[in-house]
User: Fold these one by one.
Assistant:
Number 1:
Amino acid sequence: MSYTVTSTPSLTLPVTNSISLTASDINSYRENGYHVIPNLLSPSQLQQWRTIIFTAVKDRAERKYKLPTSDEEDHTNVDFDYYDNVFTQRINLWQTHNSVKELLLESGSVIGKIAAELEGIDCVRIWHDQALIKEPFANPTAWHFDVTYWSFTSLHAISVWIALDDATLENGCMYFMPGSHKVIERHYYASNNTFPEIKIGKNMSDIFGTYPELKQWPTVAVPMKAGSASFHSALLIHGAGPNMTPGRRPAMTIQMMPDNMIFNGKQNILTKEQMDKLQIGVSVFNDDNCNPILYKKN
């Protein structure tokens, strides 16, 4: 598989600050399914992330495709007329932009380590990265959880969501359902270790058709200052409000998985070429060229 690799500005600064989790942080994450870290990036680091990510997004936007190859389509969402006005979405920028790859791998000693400690695993690989920019007056993001769409099945996958500008109640900050990951886990075991796939469409409430007990679940808004980040379990129900402002709300995300995950048959962000080579229940995602290690415990 080959991609056109584009140069973006090179790194000149340390990527992230040194951050240590407490036992209370980890316990809270496992209880609620998310953990917020204010000021994950310093002002100078934030500016560097913004420069590199925005350059890569602009380049990909000019080529008019979300994924690294132009003839591949997103297999997670439905109702594209609606969803394309939820986000400007650019996936796996690391595969086509060297500086994005360098940025993510440099961040692994902090971001990957935090993810591993929160989930209690020894190795974290990149499943994919994803720039998510709510354009002015963009639609809300329906309630969903992540791992149901991915090409592997795990109770320990995790994402980081980094605010590149302030994320506010007005411009579409994230919302979580604290503790909902436990409901999803119970259903997983009751359904023979499977997750039903619920496509992301324009109805905020579609997920309640499968998980009716969550319709009365409490929710929490998570506004964040630029440079702050939230880590959330791939089982946690989350969404985002509409952007009710004339400004953009940009974020950069990294979706992460444990080592040696096995292909479950879902396409998600995989290319047709990859799908043709993979065997359900046999093929393992441990190729550093496709899913680099972000962090591995010594």
Number 2:
Amino acid sequence: MPNIDDNISFCLLSSVETCLEDLLIIYFNIHNLPKVSREAGVIGFNRHSRWIFLTTGNDILCILWIRYYSPLSNLLISSIKESNLHSFFLLFAWPALSMLENEDWLGLGVYNSPLDPGVLNNGDGEVVAIYDWETYAPPTSTGGTGGLGFIGMQGTMDSDSSPVAQLATRQAQQGWATVFSLNEPDINGITPAEAASWYIEWINPLAIKKALPAVTSSTTSGQGLSWLSEMISACAGACYFDYINLHWYGTSFAEFQAYIEQAHNQFPSYTIVISEFALTNGGNQVAFFESAFPFLDGLSYVLLYFPFVATSPALLQANDPGAVTTVGTGSCLYTNAGGPSSVGNLMY
């Protein structure tokens, strides 16, 4: 099969629309699908939402979702399903278009609640994902995820709510494209060797994007980044993963910035997701996120970040009073009335 990377260079010489058409034509030709010609045209292109509809007449041939991301040679295209007589594809592409734009994605970490995730999905393609520390999507007022992609998380080695034996089945049934693994094992008595063995058995077999266990920002020996380094060593090259997963709680933006840069310097070859972060109780959360969001948006090595937490003050108190003690409620993305909070509004 031809290597699509061989065709990357012309993207830099083409308009965005033309490049996307070329990628689609290459994809259809490689897979012997019905011919797609330039006469089909690209309509509905929006640089910010990155949704492109390729049509012939009234028939939608395919839908393409473009994501600009380094490295240049990393291009993944995968078909999702067929609709009626016409191929209907969701294509994930990370091509040389990263040179045109460098963005990160926002996500929502949600405590189970009746809130509507769609409130924080502003439609511009920035807020794209939701997770809830479990392998089932959170109950919401709309019964769905507000148009956001759900990321399953096997937060513990096993639990009644997310049995590890059902992990693969739930992923297949719900169609996640990404999985997160253990939640803060570095401070919960799980050794790097135990985590590596568990990961190889349960996470490796999932043929989707994978994140290593989410570690804390603890600087205690054997915790945080040092625990992560020990787990990677314990894996001995046998753990298949796409991202390292970080948590951070602290007292200032400068401290957060230093932590993220330290993580990158320690693991320069790995893409980072940040699935929890906020100031500890008493800090100015709005001012912190006003600095943190643009900082993260400027980092090519950070793919996804999730401010803590997509819930309301009342629901956080009901679901996790310990978090209220540690973080307070100023970082909640919702008001008690269900609308976006001062921090939630920063996501628009």
